Every structure is written in C-alpha cells, then in structure tokens.
Amino acid sequence: MMAYALTPPQQAYLDIVGSDEKFPVRRIYCIGKNYVAHVIEMGGEVERDPPVIFQKPNDSVVRNGGEIPYPVYTENFHYEGELVVALKSGGHHIAVAEAAGHVFGYAVGLDMTRRDHQARALENGLPWEITKSFDHSAPIGPISRIEDTGVLTAGRITLSVNGETRQDGDIGWMIWKIDEIISKLSEQFRLAPGDVIMTGTPAGVGAVVPGDELVVHVDGLQDLHLRIGGPAA
C-alpha cells in the first residue's frame, strides 16, 4: 500500500440521476464565446474562430442545492448558465462522427466568473485563470445518462435569479456543437473518463449578490439550484 506524506484530497464527484453511484470528476474543460448573442453582449466579433478553451479545478465543483460564498477578489460576480457534458471515455483526435460515443451523460452547470478581473485580463492580454478558476466556481447538477436523454442537440436553456428569468436560449444555438467541441478538445488534450465539459453560455449574463437564489434549466435535465452566500472568509 502506498504511503502519503499528507492525507490525499477527496475525489470530486457529481451525482447521477436515479442512481446511488457517483461520477468521479477528473478535469473540467470550459468553452468560452460559444453563443453568438453572448459574444455580442461581451463586445466580441461574431466569427467562427477555434473554440476558446480554459479549465477549472475539479475541487471547484459545487453540487445541486449548495450555497457558495461570495468570493474574494471581486466586486462584480457573474453567473453563466451552461449545458455540461460528462465523458465515459476519451482519447486523442476523436472524430466528430465518433464523439457522441464517448458521452456518459449531461448536466446543468454554472461557470461563475469574477467579471471585473476578466475585463482587466482581456484588456491586458493576460490569462483568464484568476477570473474563472477559483473556489466554488463550478456548480454542476446531477448527471442524466445519455441512455435516458438521447443525444442532445437542441433544447431550451434558462437561468433565473430570485424567480426572474435572466438567460433564455437554446443549446441548438451553440456556435460549436457538442460533437465538434469534443473533437476539438481531443486535438489538444488526451480526454479521459471523468472529464466534464462546460459548453458555453447564452446571452443575459449578469451579477449576483449574497442571498440570491439561482435556478438553471435545460430541457430534459434536472434543474440546478444554487444560493449565493455571504462573503468568503
């Protein structure tokens, strides 16, 4: 038996709809600027450039019904509701036509963002990590198996704050579709079982404050419920 100098960190996991089994999270890949209207609202140019790719740490996962503290180092904390894809297998150079065969299932997620620092990073050509990859930045709901949902190519995606709809779109509006995203990611990374992919957000992103209640919905999947707590210690 291997002896560690420190207690190993706990394995991050997601719940699975209708099962006591858990989905172990290996890596969290994120796709930016993947809905035309969101690109426009962020001041970008609408072109089908290669997907914008970044990652979040797997221990930033917050499961359904959780509360996340208002993070340090921001005064403009934003939500981005997203469809999440969970992989059961992977590899390098996956063909678009074969990508769906690697999908375990789908979930609803949030790419929480320190928007003020993202704006400064973009202005200065700096990496996005400090704006995206912080504690509690990846709330993700239970995974529905692909056998139960079928392959998702369209469906309404909404986000509400305190009962008011803020985002309302359709996953069919993605610039880069799910199969294309998996294929593109596999050109640069060896994908593996346990990887999850946040596929981008539609228009309507905005700020939240302590006490706000968020609900993210994608047709056919279990909603994600989240509360914003007080300032992080």
Automatic annotation (TrEMBL):
Residues 28-225 form the Fumarylacetoacetase-like C-terminal domain. One of its GO terms (molecular function) is hydrolase activity. Pfam families: FAA_hydrolase. It comes from the Bacteria. Keywords: Hydrolase, Metal-binding. InterPro entries: Fumarylacetoacetase-like_C, Fumarylacetoacetase_C_sf. This is Fumarylacetoacetate hydrolase family protein. It comes from Paracoccus aurantius. The lineage of its organism: Bacteria, Pseudomonadati, Pseudomonadota, Alphaproteobacteria, Rhodobacterales.
